[in-house]
Amino acid sequence: MPTALVWFRNDLRLDDQPALQAALAQGYAPVPVYIHAPDEAGPHANGAASDAWRHRSLHALDGALRARRSRLTVLRGPTLPALERLAAATGAEAVFWTRRYEPAFEQRDTTIKRALRRGGLHAESFNGALLIEPWDVATKQGDPYRVFTPFWKTASAQLRKPRPWDAPKRLPAPPEAADATTIDALGLAPKRGWDHDFWTQWFPGEIGARAALTTFLPRIAAYPDARDVPAIEGTSRLSPHLHFGEVSVQRVFAAIGDADAPPEARAAYQRQLGWREFAHHLLHHFPHTVDRNLDPRFDDFDWAPFDAVQFDAWTRGRTGVPIVDAGMRELWHTGWMHNRVRMLVASFLTKQLRMHWSHGARWFMDTLVDADLANNTLGWQWVAGTGADAAPYFRIFNPLLQAKRFDPDAAYVRRWVPELGTPRYPAPIVDLAETRDAALAAYKRRG
Q1: What single-letter DSSP state applies at residue 160?
Q2: Which of 34, 177, 325, 438 has the most CB atoms lying inside 10 A of its own CB?
Q3: 275 Cβ partners below 8 Å, 6+ apart?
């Protein structure tokens, strides 16, 4: 039976895995492989929290493969020569993988595909991460969208009901690779165990992803209102599972569509999946936005000089603004932050402290277990007002009013800021009214 390499990346699952499906459908015995090549991610690689998650997710994938009599072959990069050596050693005739949309990976994967084909291998990539490819949605003029609502209207009209593919019950045993290493040898797990608290709340891997989806489905009816309340489990908490591809977005979209909930509630969550699609649409078409503004009118905006003391207070949850501090502490202890609170802490950094959004974006990429370049870039530029936004005003969230509205009993704040109201809690590092006025003045100067 001929063999094919199935190259796993951020698609760490066997269920609804199009690269694996293609290998089996075309009559190949799949050789699952993961290649560790962090240098190839460019300057915007995911950070320590993501590495900690990946370590556990890779172990989960290897366990799932071994339960089917296969296993994950782990190699070190560079990627192209690693694939070529493994193909030669196993006699593979083909290499299959699912696409990634980060600029560094899009360029690298194109080079790899061409080189493999020149070498006589059948090389093919598939959409395993999105509902619709970024290049399949365009305005009537053929341009990429910059505003979400018309994007989602066009994209959703093209969607068809997903028909996810079930994971195989058995797989052929792959041959040994002489230069294979182990998952533990990659050094992804933190040496000092600072991530210990993460795993009281998270279960990386395909089983954990399906459990999170199953837990969320009965709560969909309450989702439109509950999603904004940080003190309760009102969101799906699927973001890291989706980022690492432990569950397919097609599977999630189909499950939500079939859920026993009002149509408007199901549509509200599917719309959030639409925002994820939009983020990848923007990243593909405007790759420069990982560093620079989507809206060039903000290129000369009067950002304040970077203040290391204030930034440190923000990262440590010591700003003296309770809901901001609660969010930053939740992030530090769990590797995650509620989406409403993400907007508030980002607004505080970019508006009240008036620091460039890239400082916060880098911190999130290092500390979030769901750090995703597309979503992170969209989110920070949306809050900063420099990105895809139809709103004709300079959005500034008032953290005190937001806390009163979405955490009226202070249940969320008191969980993460137990010293609130005591001498141990600091005074605000800035005056919220004064800094808001200063931000608006800077906006007016921009023109």
Answers
A1: -
A2: 325
A3: 148, 152, 375, 378
Q: In terms of CATH architecture, what is 3-128? A: 3-Layer(aba) Sandwich (3.40)
Instruction: DSSP letter for 3, please.
Output: E
**163 CB neighbour count, 10 Å cutoff:** 8
C-alpha of 294 from chain center: 19
DSSP state of 391: -
How far apart, in whole angstroms, are the C-alpha atoms of residue 30 and residue 95?
9
On whether the CB atoms of residues 439 and 352 are closer than 8 A, the answer is yes
The contacts of residue 194 (CB under 8 Å, 6+ apart) are none
Distance CA 239, CA 46 (A): 14
Q: Which amino acid, one-letter code, is at 394?
A: F
CATH architecture observed for domain 130-164+206-285: Alpha Horseshoe (1.25)
pLDDT, one tens digit per residue, over 320-333 is 999 999 999 999 99
DSSP annotation string for 177-224: -TT-B-TGGG--S-SS-TTGGGGGT---SHHHHHHHHHHHGGGGGGHH
Structure pTM? 0.96
What is the SS3 assignment for 298? helix
3-state secondary structure of 16: coil
Average of per-residue pLDDT values in the chain: 96
Strands lying side by side in the sheet with 73-76: 73-76, 29-36, 3-8, 92-98, 122-126
Range 296-446: architecture per CATH: Orthogonal Bundle (1.10)
**DSSP annotation of 91:** T
* pLDDT digit string, tens, across residues 281-293: 999 999 999 999 9
Are 431 and 352 in contact by the 8 Å Cβ rule? The answer is: no
